Amino acid sequence: MSSLLSPKEKNCDNIDAQSQTKPSSPIIPICTIAYSDAYLSCTTLMDECIRTHLARRDDGDSSALLEIARKGYEITASVISHNLGHYSAWSYRRECIYDMIRLGNGEPLGERDLISLSRRFIGLERDFIRSNGGSNPKNYQLWAHRRSLLEEIYGEKLGHGADGATVEETGWDCTYNYEEEMSYLENVLVGEDAKNYHAWAHRQWVVHRYMVADEMQKYTKNELDFSAKMIRLDCRNNSAWNQRWFTYRFCQMEMSKSDDCVEVMDDDIVSFLRSEADFSFTIITLDAYNESPWLYLTEVVLEHVRLLTHHQIQNNLRSSLIDDIVNRIDVVEEVDYLSRDNSSDNQSVVSIHKLTTKIELLEAKGDISSIRKAIQITENLASKHDRIRSKFWYHRYNQLKDRI
Question: DSSP secondary structure string, 240-261?
Answer without folding.
Answer: HHHHHHHHHHHHHHHHHTSTTH
